[in-house]
């Protein structure tokens, strides 16, 4: 059976901003607020990061916000960062989401705000794993090390991973999220937190990827997309039709357990059905 829409999760809300900068600034501000609130209620906050232009610009916006407000109250030693997907490339390769996230924000958090290096849970490099399936298995083990006893409830049985308090996602022009691409078998993988992709579309960069599965996405408390640019308008519109085709537009299945918010700029929202 092909992938189906997980209707047990939170219906998406839509927020529209003037441009990409406004999208990323709004998410950055909210991210800091939600992390602070989460740490008031629990020991650790888990955040899943994404790559792509909007995802990395969001991290840069967080860094900019922190530099303007050095008295921000986040206790970074209690925050853990994970990734939704990664390219299986050598360490420090500029195409890796990890490299870009470190440059945009994480290096600053480690150097100036007390984020321990061990709280950064990068996906494996090509030095760590010879192929995507091996990388996926390695990352599943890393997630498992931070799972509560008994795992967390997923749509197809429990998953051994921490509950992500926030999962950031970009959306590709083809409607992909993480490295869950249209028409690929990875969309139908259930009962596990990660999977490998050996054949990402060539126009989207290196083919070998590790990605969280839909089941893993659907355990996140809050799923927030950052979507900017006219090239996303078609994918965004297809995600918001009645009964979207998940195999065609994986982003339609980007949903969290408590909250799903699409943050779009005007260009990306251009073709959304009027509500
Ligand atoms: O590894 C990646 O590239 C991302 O995780 C990917 O899912 C990205 O978020 C989208 O492709 C959107 O990217 P843009 O924001 O650049 O369009």
UniProtKB/TrEMBL annotation:
Its EC number is 3.1.1.31. It comes from the Bacteria. The keyword Hydrolase applies. Keywords: Hydrolase. Pathway: Carbohydrate degradation; pentose phosphate pathway; D-ribulose 5-phosphate from D-glucose 6-phosphate (oxidative stage): step 2/3. Residues 19-262 form the Glucosamine/galactosamine-6-phosphate isomerase domain. Residues 187-197 have a biased composition (Polar residues). SUPFAM superfamilies: NagB/RpiA/CoA transferase-like (SSF100950). It catalyses: 6-phospho-D-glucono-1,5-lactone + H2O = 6-phospho-D-gluconate + H(+). Residues 184-206 are annotated as: Disordered. GO terms for biological process: carbohydrate metabolic process; pentose-phosphate shunt. Pfam families: Glucosamine_iso. It is an enzyme of class 3 (hydrolase). One of its GO terms (molecular function) is 6-phosphogluconolactonase activity. InterPro entries: 6-phosphogluconolactonase_DevB, 6PGL, Glc/Gal-6P_isomerase, NagB/RpiA_transferase-like. Hydrolysis of 6-phosphogluconolactone to 6-phosphogluconate. Belongs to the glucosamine/galactosamine-6-phosphate isomerase family. 6-phosphogluconolactonase subfamily. This is 6-phosphogluconolactonase. The gene is pgl.
């Amino acid at each position: 059976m092909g992938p189906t829409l997980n209707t047990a999760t939170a219906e998406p809300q839509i927020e529209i901003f003037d441009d990409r900068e406004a999208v990323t600034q709004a998410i950055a501000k909210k991210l800091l607020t939600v992390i602070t609130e989460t740490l008031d209620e629990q020991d650790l906050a888990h955040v899943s990061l994404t790559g792509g232009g909007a995802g990395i610009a969001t991290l840069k916006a967080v860094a900019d916000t922190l530099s303007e407000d050095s008295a921000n109250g986040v206790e970074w030693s209690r925050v853990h960062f994970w990734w939704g997907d990664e390219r299986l490339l050598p360490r420090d390769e500029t195409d890796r989401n990890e490299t870009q996230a470190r440059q945009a924000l994480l290096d600053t958090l480690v150097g100036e705000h007390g984020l321990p290096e061990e709280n950064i849970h990068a996906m494996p490099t090509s030095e760590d794993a010879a192929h995507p399936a091996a990388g996926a298995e390695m990352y599943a083990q890393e997630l498992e090390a931070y799972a509560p006893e008994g795992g967390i409830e997923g749509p197809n049985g429990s998953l051994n991973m921490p509950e992500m308090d926030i999962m950031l996602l970009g959306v590709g022009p083809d409607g992909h999220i993480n490295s869950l691409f249209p028409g690929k078998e990875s969309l139908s993988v259930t009962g596990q937190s990660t999977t490998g992709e050996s054949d990402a579309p060539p126009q989207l960069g290196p083919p070998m990827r590790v990605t969280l599965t839909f089941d893993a996405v659907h355990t996140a408390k809050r799923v927030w997309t950052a979507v900017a640019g006219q090239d996303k308008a078609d994918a965004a519109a297809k995600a918001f039709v009645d009964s979207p085709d998940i195999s065609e537009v994986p982003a339609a299945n980007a949903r969290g357990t408590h909250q799903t918010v699409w943050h779009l700029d005007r260009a990306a929202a251009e073709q959304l059905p009027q509500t």
